[in-house]
Structures are given as C-alpha cells and as structure tokens.
Amino acid sequence: MRPTSRPGPRTNDSSDVAEVPRDLPLELTAFVGRAPELTRLGEATAHDRLVTVVGPGGVGKSRLVARAAAACALPDGARLVDLTAVHAVERVDRAAAESLGLADHAVRPALEVLREHFAGQRALLVLDGFEHLVAPCAALVGDLLRAAPGLRVLAAGRRPLGVRGERVVPLAPLDERDAVALFADRAEAAVPGFALDEDNTADVREICRRLDGIPLAVELAAGRLTVLSPGQLLHRLDDRFRLLTGGGRDAPPRHRTLRTAIGWSHELCTAQERLLWARLSVFAGSFDLEAVEYVCGAQGLSVDEVLDVLGELLAQSVVSREDGPGGVRYRMLETVRAYGADWLEGSGDTARLRHRHRDWYAGLATWCELEWFSSRQAEAAARIEVELPNLRAALEHALTEPGDTHPGLHLASTLWFCWVGCGRLAEGRYWLQRSIELDQGPEAESDGVPDARLKALYVFGHVALLQGDTVAALTALHECRDEAERTDDAVAVAYAEHRTGFLALVGDDAVRAERLLRSALERYQGIGELNSLVLLARVELAAAVLVQCGFPGGAVAARGRGDRTGSCRTAEAVRLCEEVREVCEDHGERWALAYALLVLAYVAWSEGDPARARRLLEECLVIEHGFQDLVGALLAIELLALVTLDQGDPVEAAGALWPSVGSPLFGSVSSRDPRVTGERRCRARLGPAGYEAAVREGARLGLDAAVRRALGRSAEPAPVAPQEPREEHGPGGAAEPDAAEAETARPAASPAPRSGETTG
Q1: Is the CB of residue 537 less than 8 Å from the CB of residue 545?
Q2: What's the per-residue H, E or C state across 663-726?
Q3: Sign of CA dihedral 59, 62, 67, 72
Q4: DSSP string covering 499-534, please?
Q5: Cβ within 8 Å of residue 485, ≥6 positions away
C-alpha cells in the first residue's frame, strides 16, 4: 500500500488540505500553475460522480488529478489506481484491487472485492494510465459507480472512458507565463544559480512557445541546460525528439523522453489513424474537415473514412477541436505535428501531400478572390484571416519545391485582396517579391487569364505604391506592361495602366493620372472586367478630377476664384463615386464602397457640410477597420480630424493627428493635405503647448482605440478622456515570413507581418 501523502509545495494557494486518508504519490517537485484548471476540476468532481481529464501525452494530466485529489474533502479520502503497467485485459480488476491493497487470497472475483470495499464509503477513486485498456476500465468504473453510491471517480487519460454520466475535462498545455515559470523552476534545480534575466528570457519564452507549453517537454528542455545555454537549446529544437531525452530514472518509461511520450499515443492508434496523423502534419495552425478530406483522403484512406478516423484522433487527444464563427476547426500541437511529420517523411509521401495541400489552398484563395466582389466579401476576408498559417505554408512549400515556383507566383498574386484590402502590405510584398525573383520567366496562359508573373508584377506594383516605394512600383509596372503588350495580354495591360495612373495621382500629376485612369477604364470595359479594383479605378479617377480643381477643398477654391469649371468637375467626381455606390449595392461590395465614401466625404467637407462628411466618414471607417485596411482607415481618421475641428473641437481634432502617419503616406502632397491643414489650424486654435499635449494624448491610442473614439464622438464637442494605449497584434500562426526580409521597404502606413502597429 502506498504511503499516505499530503501535497507538495503549493503555488496556487496557501490553504491547508483537510486531514483525510489519501493514497496518492508524493510530490517531489514544485507544482506550477494550473490554478483555473484545479478550480474547474474541483467543481466538476463535486457535481459529477465520474470526471475524466483528457489531453495529449506529457500535458500534465496525472499530476493535475493527483493534486486535485489531494484536496479531496470526502470522508474516506482518495485512492489511486495506476494501470500504466497492466497490459492484459483480464488483469484489470485484479490489478486495481492489488493497487488498493485489497489482495484477497480467497477465490472471490476481484470485482466483488472492490464492490465490497467501496460499498459503504464516500471516497474518490483516481484512475490513471488506462488509455490502452479503455473497454475493461469503462466496465469496471461503471460497475463500481452503480454498486457504491458514495464513490466518485477522477480519471486521467488520453481519451474518455465513454461511461454514461461521464464529464470530460480537456486539459490544454500551460500558457506562456506558467510554462516559463516551470522552465525556470526546473532549470534552477538542474543548474544551481540559474535565473531568468534580460539575456535569456526571450530565448526561454521562445523555447516554451515552440514546445507548445507541454509540461513534459518544458521539463526535459530545462534539464538540457546542464550542457547547453537557452540560446543553444533553442537553436537545436528543430530536432526536438532527439534533443529532449533524459527524464528522471524514477519517471514512467513513457515520460523519459519526448518521443516516447508522444509515441505512446501513436502505439495506441490503428494503422489508419497513424496514416491520418502523419498526413495532417502538412497543415499549419487550424484546419477544417473539407481541407482534411481533400488533402488526406486517398491511397489507403478514402474520403468517406476520413471523418470517422479524424473522430478517433480527436477522442485520443491527438487532434483538438476549436469552435469559432466560421464553424468547427481542428488543430494539432506543434510537437504532435512534428511527430507525424517524421512518419510522413519516412513513408516517402511528404511531397505528394504538400502538393495536395498547396492545391487546396490555391483553390480556396481563388474562391475568396471571386467572392471578394460579392455580398460574401466579409466572409472571404474572415476565411483568409483564419487560413493564413496554411496559406503561408502553401506559399513556402511552393517556393521551395523544384518546379513549384509558378504555382507559388499564382497564389501570391491571387491573394492581392488580402495584401491590399486587409492591411497586410509588408507580408504581401515579401511573398510577391520572393516569387517574382524565383520565377524563371513568362509562362503564358490561355482563355484570357493573365500570365501569373504579369499578375504578380502589377499586384506587386500596387503594394509597393501603397507603401510609398514609387521606384519599385514603377519598375514592376513597366515590366508588366512591356511584357503584356508583347504577349497581347489585354487584362495585364489594363491593370498595369490602371496602377500607373494611380502612381501618377500620388505623384501629384493629376492630369496624367486622369488620362491613364480613363484609358484603363475603357480597357476594362472592352474586356468585360468588373470587380473591386475596377471600381477603385473609378474612385481614383474621381480623386484625380478633384485634385485638378484644387482638391481637397476644390469646390470652395473654385468658388473663390469665380471659376465655374471647378464646380462642374466636382459634380463629375461625385457622379463617378455615386455610380460606384450603386454598383457596390447591387453586388454587396463594401471595400471599394468605403473609398467612394471617403471621396464623397471630402467633397461634403469642402462644400461646408461637416455633418454629412462625418456620416460618410463614419460609415467608411467602420468598413475599412472591419477589413483591417490600415491605409483607408487612416485616411478616414485624418479627414475626421478636420471635420471635428470644423465642428468646434480642436483638442479632439489634434488628438486624431497621429505622429506616425501623415506626410510619409504615399509620398503625395494631395494625400497629406488634410493633415497639413489640420495641424496648421489646430496649432492656431490651441497654441503650441495645447496642440502638442493633444497630439501626445492621441499618440497613446492604438488603432482600435482611435477608431472607437472617432466613431463614438457626438457632433457636439466633448472632453477627451484619457485612454490606456493598447498593443495591436496581428494574427498568430506558423510559417511567418522572416521579419528582416518582410520588412524590406517597410510601408509608411501598413502593418508589418507580426504587428498591427503603424509605422512612419
């Protein structure tokens, strides 16, 4: 019989545990974190008679249930049955009885002995290590719960028991803070004097992140500090299974190395489950059922079988489920994924699966590009956002596999709406530039579809232009047009001319911009092209017209000169934008609509109607911020500052003029005119000191907070309430581009791949 124990060092609370009988393992190391999980587990065991904690190998299930059981307040205490070393089905009942010290030398069945023992008790039975004997363990637990009304069972395994009335509690890995604390505690034990400091904290955090916060993996990694520094350890994590060995001699065999911990789960899988596990390793981040069926179904695992096999991997905690606005999705821990990737590589099937993965996500990108010009535009944006890790993986595979460069070029250019419309200019430039450089040359396509290289060139030109890099934009657009004219590619010619027209507009050559944009629109009409970019060309043409009238404030300036031409040209610009509004309403398009609203708001403001300008800008800002289009959102905010000033609130207006945005935007005089005008008028109204104070206060706001304040302001002046700055983060996910490369020619007003902050 095991010695009665009381819990080891407590990190979650300092209360004493009631003195009741326990037969639980002694804690020899500090118990780190898990306060919310312990609370939840205590509530579950108080409410339900059978609670099973499930999770992948090494996540800390055994330690958690032992700690929870140690706090058990039942009169007859808690008893542990560990079935890890039991392999025969018929031995389960007898092993449980022996583990509890109930060996009966008579011929009575062990189950009868167990029933008799628990019949009159109010006790907690802790069952651990049962996943290889689920059916007999389920039968044992079901029988005991029926025979002993005062008995409760707390089980820990990689899958549920499947007994009626069972409450399943999934256990996730540690969060970053607790994982780092666990690493530091175990590292100090292995290397006396070790402590987190400014030199090693970043490496330790990255180690814990790369290891998914799996406690076993973190402990094994900390043990390696006897021979490696945190930096060296991090550098070697690509071979984590060879590196993370050396668990304590008293640890269960399956917990002495990371490979055996994950391998134990693998051994419990059927051949089809192992096959799907390996194939799922090509996914990055989360994925959905349709993607799994396409990518993984075939050659030994039919599409019809995928759902059931995936369900088994979910039950065994190899795969986890996530519920979100887009429906059910699935995810594998990176360590579990890496184990599957080793098996996939060993089978020689990696290249085929990566090609299927690339083809699925290229198809998804194409669908989203088509839906971008429809009432499902927001859905397309949301879908691309959640699929970014897989799209990055598909791009990386395409651009590193021999012969796959052209598909990678196609995928990078198809995602133009993500780069341009969803605020990912720097990342888009990274993939586009890389794919263009790797491509060996034109590969013309038929049926009026532009060559992938030409599309990549004009999309790259668009992205570089929005970043303010006019030299790179002009080079790409000239190459695109020259090659398009040589190959008679009418689509590419139209887009190259369109973007060159916009380049002229932001270069303050409105006359040339108007000529090029009108020509591009005629070309679009000739080839039957109608989409968000075509509508954007109409809005840009309206802007070119207004700039020639002295815009911003074109109509006011024209009236001051007694010039009727300016007024008429303003009417033409308004008509163009109103036509865009009508087309957007017919098709459910919102992104191009926002830019039309922005131009209409400029007109309303310049004509002395700040109330209408505000209504238009607020609608514009809601749309732009919803898509995370930073360029459009900032243009709207800066014009809102002028509108706010006209409505009598110079403090609020000055607070909207962010120091990080403005004159660098595009490099255009006309695009930064609202800021220059706003600065001058605010300084005059507030004085230098008051102006600087308001600007500093506005600079404390992140984009989300600035948008909330801009949209929440009433038409009447109101005092500005101080707000805490909020750090803006882009979505996480695997396979992010290298920061140094992705930040080349970093945009004046666009988020970097790892951040939503503006730069300037």
Answers
A1: no
A2: CCCCCCCCCCHHHHHHHHHHHHHHHHHHHHHHHHHHHCCCHHHHHHHHHHCCCCCCCCCCCCCC
A3: positive
A4: HHHHHHHHTT-HHHHHHHHHHHHHHHHHHT--SHHH
A5: 493
Buried residues in 213-224 as b, exposed as e (16+ CB within 10 A): bbbbbbbbbbbb
CB neighbour list of residue 120: distance below 8 Å, 6 or more residues apart: 148, 150
Rounded CA separation 392/628 (Å): 19
Whether 638 contacts 675, CB under 8 Å: yes
Rounded to whole angstroms, the Cα distance separating 245 from 385 reads 37
Q: Are 222 and 186 in contact (CB under 8 A)?
A: yes
Banded model confidence at residue 29, pLDDT cuts 50, 70, 90: confident
Report pLDDT for 85: 79
Range in 222-236, 450-464, 657-671 with the lowest mean pLDDT: 657-671
| The pLDDT of residue 57 | 82
Mean pLDDT in residue range 251-260 = 61
> To 10 degrees, what angle do helices 92-99 and 134-147 make?
60
Phi–psi pair at 23, nearest 5 degrees = -130, 70
Q: How far apart are CA 417 and CA 179, in angstroms?
A: 38
Q: How far is it, in rounded angstroms, from Cα 214 to Cα 56?
A: 9
- Spatial contact of 706 and 698, defined as CB atoms under 8 Å apart: yes
Q: What six digits make up the tokens of 33?
A: 């974190």
CB neighbourhood size of 208 (10 A): 26
If you average pLDDT over every residue of the chain, what do you get?
81
Please tell me the number of Cα atoms within 13 Å of 696 on its side-chain side. Answer: 6
Q: What mean pLDDT comes out for the span 629-649?
A: 82
| Contacts with 137 (C-beta within 8 Å, 6 or more apart), sequence order | 83, 92, 127, 130, 155, 161
- Residues 199-234: pLDDT tens digits? 889 999 998 988 888 888 888 888 888 888 888 888
**CA distance linking residue 533 with residue 553, whole number of Å:** 26
More confident residue, 345 or 108: 345
* Distance of alpha carbon 547 from alpha carbon 358, whole angstroms: 45
Asked whether residue 459 carries a pLDDT value surpassing 90, the answer given is: yes
DSSP alpha helix (H) spans, 191-256: 201-210, 215-223, 230-235, 240-243
Distance between CA 455 and CA 409 in Å, rounded?
A: 9
Q: How far apart are CA 255 and CA 217, in angstroms?
A: 9
Q: How far apart are CA 216 and CA 259, in angstroms?
A: 11
**More confident call, 287 vs 252:** 287
Residue 362 identity (one-letter amino acid): A
- 643 token code pair: 């509108």
- Which of the two residues, 606 and 499, has the higher pLDDT score? 499
- Residue 655 CA to residue 721 CA, distance in Å, equals 11
Hey, which residues does 329 pair with through a beta bridge? 322
Residues contacting residue 108 through CB under 8 Å, at least 6 positions apart: none
